[in-house]
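Q: Given only this backbone (151 positions), what sequence would you predict?
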């Protein structure tokens, strides 16, 4: 679940709106667009309405919800679907990490973090993150590793 900012032309005026997107991957591997919603801004309150709408339309359970770091979003998901595991999107984690790194170090930071999110299991990911924490990159950018630990 995420929102994308788009320019929409309506009544000969262009306005910037958020398109809320809910995609599902079903147990058999098929993908389904659950819905698109338009709103001026992205917020947890609106996502709560979207999630309740999904429940009312027949979605019975969500195993894993992959979302950005929007405050209140995990609570909105848990209110509608209490057994859902909430996971932060790797793309959003990487973008957040790159905001701390200088331009010249971004490729090295991305390569070091790739070992974390492509690990074969949790133990290998833990080892890769620990290795990153001991690196010179982590010393230069101390906010990156804790953000991955939180996520």
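A: Predicted residues:
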């Amino acid at each position: 679940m995420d929102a994308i900012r788009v320019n929409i032309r309506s009544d000969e005026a262009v306005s910037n709106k958020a398109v809320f997107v809910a995609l599902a991957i079903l147990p058999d591997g098929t993908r389904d667009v659950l819905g698109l919603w338009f709103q001026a801004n992205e917020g947890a309150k609106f996502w709560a309405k979207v999630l309740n709408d999904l429940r009312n339309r027949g979605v019975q359970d969500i195993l894993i919800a992959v979302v950005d770091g929007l405050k209140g979003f995990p609570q909105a998901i848990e209110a509608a679907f209490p057994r859902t595991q909430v996971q932060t999107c790797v793309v959003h984690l990487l973008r957040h990490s790159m905001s701390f790194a200088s331009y010249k170090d971004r490729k090295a930071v991305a390569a070091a973090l790739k070992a974390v999110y492509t690990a074969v299991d949790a133990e290998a990911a833990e080892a890769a993150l620990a290795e990153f924490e001991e690196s010179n990159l982590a010393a230069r950018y101390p906010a990156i590793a804790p953000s991955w630990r939180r996520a």
